[in-house]
Amino acid sequence: MKEYTNSGNKDTRSGFGAGLTELGKKNENVVALCADLTGSLKMNDFAANHPERFFQVGIAEANMMGIAAGLTIGGKIPFTGTFANFSTGRVYDQIRQSIAYSDKNVKICASHSGLTLGEDGATHQILEDIGLMKMLPGMTVINTCDYNQTKNATLAIADYEGPVYLRFGRPKVANFTPENDDFQIGKGVQLQEGNDVTIVATGHLVWEALEAAKQLHEAGISANVINIHTIKPLDEEIIIKSVQKTGCIVTAEEHNYLGGLGESVARTLAQHLPTPQEFVATQDTFGESGTPEQLLEKYGLNAENIVKMSKQVITRK
Amino acid sequence: MADIQQLKDMVTQVRRDIVRQVHAVNSGHPGGSLGCAEFLVTLYCEFMDHDPSFNMDGKNEDLFFLSNGHISPVIYSVLARNGYFPVEELATFRKLDSRLQGHPTTHEGLPGIRIASGSLGQGMSVAIGAALAKKLNDDDKTIFSLHGDGELQEGQIWESVMYAAANNVDNLICTIDVNGQQIDGSTDQVLDLGNLQAKFEAFGWNVLRIKDGNNVEAIIEGMREAISLSRKRKPICILLHTEMGNGVDFMMGSHKWHGVAPNDEQLEEALAQNPETLGDY
């Protein structure tokens, strides 16, 4: 069984900040907009190095989305930054009309997604954003798993023409994917070969999936682990190929089980290869205040629950 | 530069285009479209440096953004009459597979349209973004936009108004179509807009007023003044006072014709009041 090394916990939002800093130097069409959360989004370096290409819009997210759409007319590549809740739900109509329907090359970059925003509670946590964004025609939806992947994704989406939603988070999580990896939008990453159960995960739950695979291995169960960093377009081929071998699947994400990765996978399998599936995700509930660790445990977004669901889904084959 | 009579002839033909488009599908918004005919004809024919061969980026061109997208019949007519697409295409307005959607969109690839609009309140933000891109590109052309007065009830407008002033977006000329009407009644009755001049000025804008927004000469004079005020570290707002339904007597002065199509007899009556000048499609 392949071992993955955690090179040290780092926050994914800092991966975004590092990517944006690099883009600032190498792509002069890249511009950045922020709604009063420059520090939270780690956009400080870009703002300091390229003040003429950084737009502080204040606490006015709807205006930010519209300005971003307008900047594309003139060839700019705008990256907007705020919390995931205010990047999606608060400005859904602006994104829908001025960005997605208008085919504008805006990169909507969203930090503090999911429960792990922590103590701020449900008003600031969002567990519906993947669903909201994936329902928009033409929108690419990416949820990266660690610091390195977030940085590589940030660089990759600048070269991709079209609207993108890039989702990442606040807490420090294991950093284990290769530095300077070639991030391919829409391609899942095979992390672990196995025959008994497929585990597909997104975001920092990919690391939990690897931890779960280790525990399953000790129990004599071999898991096939896939990192789905792009939820839309979904790499259907890698998923179907895996379940042809394993016959069952567990999906894991820090999102509501309605509308997230799990639902996209379920639709794919229903159409091509109906397969028993279990969902590691929140169960149609709002979040609450707590430390990230407490919340992940309470809502079952961890390796232990992935192990439990894997054992459960195997009995349904 | 076109002479005044040419502009007026264009306005008359645009009015014919508007009522014919809306009548043909028995849907659409003739009232506000007719009210803005003089303004858009004058803007496109007299003031904007624009290229009908059209590319989306519009570098080194003046750009126009329509924020109140429901008055699509007037912008479609003005674009077609300025060579952006064949005038005959106006016959496809709101029909299946048409590039002339009920509300304008880039999605169908209609030359001249750079942003979708229809859901109100978003166009000023987009216009600001385009104006900022021009500054970054050292492009000294101007961004124009048009907004309904009822549209100012949307909160996003005031986010934009605040931003443009705070950031000296002075290559932007936003025009508000002050016709005092919205779907449910007069703007005074539905949600009183108060003193718009004082509001925009309080936010830090240069504001000017065109009292007769259905008079070509008055529009030319107002636009010259607006352009002379640009590049002075302030965004510019034109309060353009128009009559909804202008040029068709039975449509004038009432919110009833905001979104209602004329029947066959009413169409004939409207066309009789606006004799053909440049040829119907």
From TrEMBL, chain A:
Annotated InterPro entries: PDH/Transketolase, THDP-binding, Transketo_C/PFOR_II, Transketolase-like_Pyr-bd, Transketolase_C
Pfam families membership: Transket_pyr, Transketolase_C
UniProt-listed CDD domains: TPP_PYR_DXS_TK_like
Cofactor(s) named in the record: thiamine diphosphate
UniProt keyword terms in alphabetical order: Thiamine pyrophosphate
Ranges for domain Transketolase-like pyrimidine-binding: 10-175
SUPFAM superfamilies (UniProt xref): Thiamin diphosphate-binding fold (THDP-binding), TK C-terminal domain-like
Family, per entry: Belongs to the transketolase family.
Record-given protein name: Transketolase
UniProtKB/TrEMBL annotation, chain B:
Annotated Gene3D superfamilies: 3.40.50.970
UniProt keyword Transcription regulation, yes or no: no
UniProt KW keywords: Thiamine pyrophosphate
Cofactor(s) needed by this chain: thiamine diphosphate
Recorded family membership: Belongs to the transketolase family.
Organism of this sequence: Nonlabens spongiae
InterPro entries: THDP-binding, Transketolase_N
Name of the protein in question: Transketolase
Source species, domain of life: Bacteria
PANTHER family in UniProt: TRANSKETOLASE N-TERMINAL SECTION-RELATED
Domain Transketolase N-terminal: 8-269
Keyword Signal: no
